[in-house]
Write a structure and sequence with these properties.
There is one protein chain. This protein has 231 residues and is α+β, with helices and mostly antiparallel strands. 33% of the residues lie in helices and 19% in strands. The chain contains four helices and six strands; from the N terminus they run H-H-E-E-E-H-E-E-E-H. Strands 1, 2, 3, 4, 5 and 6 form a six-stranded antiparallel beta sheet that branches. A hairpin with a 5-residue loop joins strand 2 and strand 3. The protein is rod-shaped and about 160 Å long.
C-alpha cells in the first residue's frame, strides 16, 4: 500500500470516529427519554391506583358494629328464700303456718282454697306496721308483710304483694312455730299465702292472710296442689 492510499484510509477512519460520538449521543438521549417516560407513566399509574383505592374504601368502608350493651339489672337484690333446713324446729316444708288461737271460719281443703280471693307463692322481703286496721275495735295485732311473688295462683299479677298477717314469732319473743304467740317467719322465708280482703271489695284491697292451713311453708308438692286447686 502506498503512502497516499494509507493517508486516505486514516482520514476516512478519523472522520468516521468523529461522527460516532454524535450518533451515540443521539441514541443515549433517546434511551434516557424512554426511561423518563416509563417512570412518569409508572408514577402516574401508581398514583391513580391509590386514588381509586382510597375512593372505593371511603365509599364501602364498613361501619363499626356497636357493642352490645350489658343487660340492665334491677337495683334491688332478690331475697334468697329460706332453705327447708332453716325452717323452725319441728316443722316441715308444706306444714301450715300456725296463727295461734285464731278461729277458723272454714276448714282447709282444695275446694275451700279455691274460694280464696288471692293465693300466691312468695318470699318475705319486709315486715312493717299493719295496713288494714282502719278503725277496728278492738284492733288486731298484725303486721304488713311484703312478699316477692314467685307465682300467682289467684288474685294478682304483680311482682310483689303486701299482706297483713299475725306478727312473726320473733316479735313476740318465741320461736315455737306452734305457739299462740304468732307464726314463725322472717325476711327470707318462703310461704304459700292465701286469704281474703279484710273489709270486702277487690281481692287485694286490704288483703289479710288466713291461718288454719290457708297459709303454709313452701314445698314444691304443696305448690303443685295449689296450682291444681285454683285452676
Amino acid at each position: 500500500m502506498n503512502q497516499s492510499t494509507e493517508r486516505e484510509l486514516r482520514d476516512l477512519f478519523a472522520a468516521d470516529a468523529a461522527d460516532a460520538p454524535d450518533e451515540l449521543a443521539v441514541v443515549a438521549g433517546a434511551v434516557r427519554r424512554v426511561h423518563r417516560r416509563r417512570r412518569t407513566l409508572t408514577v402516574a399509574a401508581a398514583t391513580t391506583t391509590v386514588i381509586i383505592a382510597a375512593a372505593v374504601y371511603g365509599v364501602h368502608r364498613p361501619t363499626a358494629t356497636p357493642q352490645a350493651q350489658p343487660p340492665v339489672t334491677p337495683s334491688s337484690v332478690p331475697v334468697t328464700p329460706t332453705p327447708a333446713a332453716d325452717l323452725p324446729a319441728g316443722v316441715k316444708p308444706g306444714d301450715p303456718l300456725a296463727f295461734g288461737a285464731a278461729q277458723c271460719v272454714k276448714a282447709y281443703a282444695p275446694q275451700t282454697l279455691a274460694e280464696q280471693a288471692f293465693a300466691f307463692d312468695g318470699t318475705v322481703t319486709g315486715i312493717g306496721p299493719a295496713r288494714t286496721e282502719r278503725d277496728a275495735h278492738p284492733p288486731l295485732d298484725l303486721r304488713s308483710v311484703t312478699f316477692q311473688v314467685h307465682t300467682w295462683f289467684r288474685g294478682g299479677s304483680a311482682g310483689t304483694a303486701v299482706v297483713d298477717m299475725s306478727p312473726p314469732a320473733a316479735a313476740t319473743g318465741t320461736g315455737d312455730a306452734t305457739s299462740e304467740g304468732g307464726p314463725a317467719y322472717r325476711v327470707g322465708t318462703r310461704l304459700l299465702v292465701s286469704g281474703m280482703p279484710r273489709w270486702g271489695g277487690a281481692a287485694l284491697a286490704d288483703p289479710i292472710a288466713w291461718g288454719c292451713g290457708f297459709t303454709r311453708y313452701y314445698s314444691p308438692s304443696t305448690a303443685a296442689e295449689w296450682a291444681t286447686a285454683t285452676k
